[in-house]
Amino acid sequence: MLFNDLFWERWRTILVRGDDEPEYIPAGDETGCHRVVFAHGYFASALHEISHWCIAGERRRQLHDYGYWYCPDGRTREQQAAFESVEVKPQALEWLFSEAAGVTFNISVDNLSGDGACDEAGFRRKVARQARGYLETGSLPPRGRLFLETLLTFYDREVVFGAHLFTPDRERSAI
Predict the structure, then answer these.
(1) What digits encode the pLDDT tens for the residues 77-130?
(2) Domain final residue pick, 10, 42, 67
(3) Domain of 56, in residue numbers
(4) Are residues 35 and 109 in the same domain?
(5) N or C: which end of the chain has fewer CB within 10 A?
(6) Taking a C-beta distance cutoff of 8 angstroms, is the pair 131, 170 a contact?
(7) Does 175 map to a domain?
(8) Residue 8: inside a domain, yes or no?
(9) pTM exceeding the 0.85 threshold for the entire prediction
């Protein structure tokens, strides 16, 4: 509801619960709108997919899944490094959204059966640093800022929210 109310009119984009994998579907079919599809009704999936949408530029928002590749679980070290390099910003934004809504955020290296390529603690530090940076430098993507402000107001969390919440050891706890 919050996403659709905020972004439908100007960006012709809606958030849709999906039955399977999340995806982004640009306008171009009979619906006439862009669709951010999140998995199985999971709130965390919705926040993650919204994060990707908030970061994607105009050109990427015209491409299915923003034109990103996806390499499934079982990635090599090189593939994992590439995955993490593109996931730092959306996961940092997702963490901000999670804290604004008062829900637990869980970092995702998304490579449970890989070749030991994951440095989850290192990735968590990068995501925490990016989340704090977004707040301290005011460098949030504009749509991300709008959504964050909407969540903070809706969940009445302005007073408890701040950069102090985003440290690597605090990643799994929400207030």
Answers:
(1) 787 788 888 899 999 999 999 999 999 999 887 755 555 567 788 889 999 999
(2) 67
(3) 2-67
(4) no
(5) N
(6) no
(7) no
(8) yes
(9) yes
